[in-house]
Amino acid sequence: MTVPPGNLNTMEKPQNMTSNECFPSRSTVLQGQPFGGIPTVLFLNIFLWVVIILVYSFLRKAAWDYGRLALLIHNDSLTSLIYGEQSEKTSPSDISLEMEHKDKGFYSWFFNTVTMKNEDLISKCGDDARIYIMFQYHLIIFMLILCIPSLGIILPINYTGTVLDWNSHFGRTTIVNVSIESKVLWLHSCFSFLYFLLNLVFMAHHCLGFVPKRSYKVTRTLMITYVPTDIQDPEIIIKHFHEAYPGCVVTRVHFCYDVRMLIELDDQRRHAMRGRLYYTAKAKKSGKVMIKTHPCSRLCFCKCWTCFKEVDAEQYYSELEEQLTDEFNAELNRVRLKRLDLIFVTFQDARMTKHIREDYKYIHCGVPPQQSSVSTIVKSYRWRVALAPHPKDIIWKHLSVRRFHWWARFIAINTFLFFLFFFLTTPAIIINTIDMYNVTRPIEKLQSPVITQFFPSLMLWAFTVILPLIVYFSAFLEAHWTRSSQNLIIVNKCYIFLVFMVIILPSMGLTSLDVFFRWLFDIYYLEQASIRFQCVFLPDNGAFFVNYVITAALLGTGMELLRLGSLFLYSTRLFFSRSEPERVHIRKSQAIDFQYGREYAWMMNVFSVVIAYSITCPIIVPFGLLYLCMKHVTDRYNMYYSYAPTKLNEQIHMTAVYQAIFAPLLGLFWMLFFSVLRLGTLHTITFFSLSTLIFSMVIAFLSTLLGKLQGVSDYEVWENRRRR
């Protein structure tokens, strides 16, 4: 992406940096092409997207119903046996059966996804899907409106500038082509502020859809931790609340147990039962069926080895079921002895719940709660009280990971991630290594736009998928108690990491957080502080991000459909399966919950890229609209056909709203940096940019605060109406 020195403003030569100074790692691979290589990258992505769609249309049914796993999920639930929870995965509804009946043709899945009614999607996937797709609708309409001023006003103004030569095709579409003496720069600053206000209005309108379906909290149930494990009688808990809070009526007390082993045994037992029923029915029709029980039996056709000999399928699964049932019953009897220091207490009225929560609100500050005659027995002064999550939101097997073990695991995992990403934050690190060993010399000699433009945008997209996956999987190792908290930690960590990796560091020519902190605090790097921000405004820098958005819109969404990692795992499990019932069990248990945290983080990352460069590089806006439309269609299909429904609270969706409000602030930051570097600190546009940035930050903070308060108020009003 080299930029000829003649293309830069001659009045600012002492300050400006060249592309090679900003991006030394792009010396061999990231080289400039006419119009930033955007037409070439767009054509390649369209071609690859079509290929992916063709391959996926074949694989979704040919590869063992891989693309329709959500229609085959089980409706079993062990937690209903222990805690009285309803089934987490329901049997296919009439809508699912109707959609499955329509899913007959080679491309019918694509047209079914586009024409699917929102009511059908919400009926199967739950209220979280409603909030998610409505959020996407708001972003799409917002981006569609942004296309009008970006392409109709800002782009013509940039292109008619006189700073760059006419042969600098893409550079002329950026703000760099506007003379610093031109008054039209006021329009850029004003539009960046208007984008923030318009985005704020859209997010406020979206938040109205959270009420009254805003929470899955069980409002009459409290989750209480640090309860002594030697208490087995619920009457003691009931007595404490009756005495400490007169008029309080407790309707139910649930003790929690360590059910990790029980859940695993129950799954194996149900699998063996299905195998027995399958081969019993088959034996009645066609006689005794023989199978090989070794996992690697498909790799060896020899019958002489003992482990590969065939056995009676019905007898094998009958004996296996009997053995697992005995183990299950024995573990069920033992699980009552594995009490956790966690209980759920349900009250008759939500007002009682609120009163008790208020009493325990300041216990961390040493304010004791109300006491009873059994307070010393139940140790109520040590309790921690919170509203209980919805049973479908709780990850029951993680409840046994407590106190020191949970915090030790959490700190160890995140310390490792910090040191990993401290030195390995952007793809530029890898490119530097490649250049160091001259791996790309053959690529450099090719001088092909296919390689020099598509390869870097593909690499950036790949890293924005692969590296955050480490963050994503780390959340599972942290063993969070609820799916909501798990998704919340995913969306926050992934988004912060992606913003640094994709927007901030590459824009300023920095390669990692290590270099970023040295640039901030090292006296030698501080000498470059005033010129590093000029890397943001190099003419071809915006082309790199346009290519990234194009790659994310087409190749990225196509790979989200294909899901190669899941396909590899799915096919491997099927290959090592021992019988047809086991393969049916794998198909029905392969679908996982839709990961709202991960999807929100990736979507908001691209949205932030588009908004950050919407003023300085307006041509990126229509490609941002393309990404949101493609992402919406892809997510509709995945939620309905590929992932199991899940239940979350509203906090994960509100976090995405806060991130969307933050995105236009990046555009305001970029305009402030441009004004300081090109116009000077005393210019009126600089003062205006600084004022609008501060004002916008105050508005964003107050909106976030008022949103939280309004949410609590709406929630209480809804509870009062429900009681009446």
TrEMBL record:
Belongs to the CSC1 (TC 1.A.17) family. InterPro entries: Csc1-like, CSC1/OSCA1-like_7TM, CSC1/OSCA1-like_cyt, CSC1/OSCA1-like_N. It comes from Mustela putorius furo. Residues 409-681 form the CSC1/OSCA1-like 7TM region domain. Residues 41-203 form the CSC1/OSCA1-like N-terminal transmembrane domain. GO terms for cellular component: plasma membrane. This is Calcium permeable stress-gated cation channel 1 isoform X4. Residues 220-398 form the CSC1/OSCA1-like cytosolic domain. Pfam families: PHM7_cyt, RSN1_7TM, RSN1_TM. The chain crosses the membrane at residues 35-59, 139-159, 185-211, 406-430, 450-473, 494-517, 548-570, 606-628, 656-677, 684-706. It catalyses: Ca(2+)(in) = Ca(2+)(out). GO terms for molecular function: calcium-activated cation channel activity. Keywords: Membrane, Transmembrane, Transmembrane helix, Transport. It is found in: Membrane. The keyword Membrane applies. The keyword Iron-sulfur does not apply. It is a multi-pass membrane protein.
